[in-house]
Amino acid sequence: MLPHSPAFKLFSAVAQRAGHTLAITDVILHEVVRQYHEGLTSAINEYRRARRALNELLPPTQRVQGTPRIPEHALSRKNYISRGVKRFEADIRDNFLVLPTASEDALAALKMEADHTEPGLNGAGARDASIWLTAVRAAATCERDGAGRRLPVIFVSSDGDFTAPGKSRDLAPQLVNDATRKGQLILRSTVVDAMDAFGYPQQLVGAEEVTQRDDFQRVLIDMATDLADLPSRHLEKMADAEVTVQLISGQKGRCCSGDGTTLTTVSGTWSIRFVFEWLPRRPDGYGGTAYKGLPMQIEGTALIVEERDQEAVIEFAPQWISVAGRDSRVF
Predict the structure, then answer these.
(1) In 77-206, which ranges are continuous DSSP H helix?
(2) Rounded alpha-carbon distances, angstroms, from residue 57 to 54, 61, 64, 67
(3) Which of 10, 45, 235, 241 has a C-alpha 20 to 30 A away from that of 36?
(4) What residue stretches are annotated with the DUF4935 domain (predicted)?
(5) 212: Cα separation from own chain's centroid
C-alpha cells in the first residue's frame, strides 16, 4: 500500500479519525526504499527494451519517443531513478512516523536469530525480530485518543514468523508478553483487519455510484476548471454551458463506517464536457464534432467524508488533466 493510492488514502483517514499515528520502523523504511529502487529500475529497463523492439518495426516517422508523462530525455538521464527514489522516500517519511531501532533491541534480535527463537527461527529473521521488538517498545508508551482513552499499537503483518503454526492468525505463543496480554499490542494480518480494529469495517462500492452524485460532480467540475487555468472568455461561456460528467474508467470504490462517520474513496478517469452550442447534423453524417464546446479529462482520487447531520466533505487529489485533447499535465 503506497502513498497516494486510494487504499492508502482511505486507511490514513480512518487511522487519523481513530486517533492513531501510522508508523514504520527504520528497518522497514530501508527495505521498502530498496524494493522501490529495484522495481523502478527494472520497469524502466523493460520499457526501454520494449520501445526499442517496437521502433525496429516502425518507420522513422512513427517511432515512439518517450511518453507524454516521461519525456525521452528524462528517461536517459542517470539521475532520473535517484530523484524518483528520493521522492518516494520523502513521501514515506511524510506519511509515516519512522521508529528508530534501539541498539539493545538490535542486539537482542541477533541473539534471537542465533538461538532460533521466534521470530528468528531457522538461523534467520533478525530483521523481523528487530521490527517486533521496536513495536513492543512503542507499546510501552501508547497514544491516547481525543477522549483520553489509551490506544493499542496495532502491528500489521502477514509474515508467518509472527503467527502461531498452521493457518492461525493468532500471535505466536513465544511472542506473548505483558503488552499483548493487556491488549496494548495487537497483531493484525492485513490493513482491512486493522481497519476493523479501528472500528471501521470496509466494503466495496461501485465507482459509478460516486460519479452520479451531484455534490461529487460539482467538486470535480470546479477542480478541473481551476486546474485548467483557462482564459476568461472560456470561463464566461462555461458558466452557461451544458455540462456532463462521465466515468471513463475506474476501479471499485472502498467505503467504511464507524462512529457515525462514513468514508469513501474512489479513483478513476472522468470526462467533463462543456457544450456551448449544438451543431446541426451534416447531410452526409460525417465530419467534425456535433457541438462547440470544451471537452476535458481528469484522473485522480476522491475521498468523501460524511458525518451524521453534516454536509459531505469531498477532497479530490488530481494526477492528470487534459483539455480538448491537449495540454496534458501531471501533478
Answers:
(1) 79-95, 103-114, 126-139, 178-181, 191-198
(2) 5, 12, 11, 18
(3) 10
(4) 5-162
(5) 23
